[in-house]
Amino acid sequence: MACTFALAGEPVESNQTETIYSSGKLKITGHFVGDLTNLDNGKSITVNASGSVRLSPEGDNIRLVSAGPVIFSSFPGDAGLGEISTGRTYLTHGHTEVLVDAATFTFLSFETKGKVTDLCAALG
Prior knowledge:
This protein has 124 residues and is mostly beta strands. The protein has one helix and eight strands, in the order ββββββββα.
């Protein structure tokens, strides 16, 4: 996880299922709740991130598509929300698509429709 401060994440409840298809696609569904803590100031929040995620191979990349509440952490240089020169972590609600470099895990593109919560700001 990434913010401009030290950030820790800990699962509280997890009942997720991963389904791997013969095409190489992966689907993750189920209930997930986690605690996030700013290690610099001790502030914590509990986040329900029970959305679904699908991962599909796309050439040398991976297309990630999510629906519902999902946590995304972006590192400096990643495409995505906010200032790309810093780490950042968001909770998205709705449809999100991310193209990820399969070798480096760098976010090449990031598009979301719906509500977005800046978790770093909530913990700052």
